[in-house]
Amino acid sequence: MTNRKISQIRKLGCRPAERRPNQPHLSAMRGFCARQAPARLDRSGLNPAPLMLGNDMLGDCTSAGIGNHLRATAALAGFQIAVTTPAAVQFYSRSTGYVPGNPDTDNGGVEVDVLTTALRDGYALADQTLFPIWGSADPGDLNGIRNITAGLSAAYLGVQLANADMWEDQDGNLAPVWDTDSPADHGDPTPNPQNGHCLLLWDYAGTNDTDLVTLLTWGSLQKATWRWVRSRIMEAHGLAWGQLHAPGSLYPAGDDWAALVAANEAYLRGAACPRRVPARSCSR
């Protein structure tokens, strides 16, 4: 997949979902994804302050997603953290092989390889480098995805947008709500494998098909329905920042936390993806 524009101010850049041998999975935390998620997650009083982070110029949504996950985590803990576009682009380069100034190398990223780079090398900011641990989840398990959202700040998702989702009004605004039942003049509502995008799921008003969720993407808060999420999702992951997170009742702790840390350590020992190599070539 080469990077595609959806407009003059938004670009795509999530390559098709892949798996790596022994990649961390949130099932290592017994009960975390299996427990009953909150029926609603209202964060309307909190501002996660998402930023574009270069995703208007480059297909760096996988890097922007991590940068905005940092900011969402900080917002929940009562402060904010500075993530700059140069930092996001630098990480995009490190994790995908993008060469700044060479558009031929702007080919997006594979989420699991981008997350592996963050685990191994950290996400470097101007004044500090932060290291997440992470785990994947079944993209069809919406209860598990709600648990990730509630317990780990936001869910890091890979989706395949439909052409209808890329509709804009005359002012360049997206539809107020992304839904599978879109107006006919918005275009084809079928998920398009060429339209891979990384975004975050931040909160949700309920668990019914037509209940609204809030997505963080392209520096803004975008509403969608759960049936839209089910239709478009191709992968789901949870990230945890031990340096930033304010532990709460839904945050993994004790044996669950130790198990996820151990799964990340085991994976890192076996991960064979060398630095500065395009993510699509990192296979074993």
Salient structural properties:
284 residues, alpha+beta, Cathepsin B, Chain A, seven-stranded mixed β-sheet, two-stranded antiparallel ribbon, 9 strands, 26% helix
| Average pLDDT taken over every residue | 92
Q: Sum up the overall morphology in one term.
A: globular
CATH superfamily: Cysteine proteinases
The poorly predicted ranges are: 273-284
> How helical, in percent, are the residues?
25-40%
Helix/strand order, N-terminal first? HHHEEEHEEEEEHEH
Overview of this structure, please?
The chain is α+β, with helices and mostly antiparallel strands and 284 residues long. The chain has one domain (47-269): Cathepsin B, Chain A. Helix content is 26%, strand content 19%. It has helices at residues 61-76, 85-96, 111-121, 142-151, 226-232, 254-270, and strands at residues 123-124, 129-130, 133-137, 155-162, 177-178, 191-204, 212-217, 220-225, 233-240. Strands 3-9-4-6-7-8-5 form a seven-stranded mixed beta sheet, with helices on both faces. Helix 1 (61-76) crosses helix 2 (85-96). The longest helix is centred in the last third of the chain and has 17 residues, at 254-270. The radius of gyration is 17 Å and the shape is globular. The chain starts with 60 loop residues before the first helix and ends in a 14-residue tail after the last helix. The model is unreliable at 273-284 (pLDDT under 50).
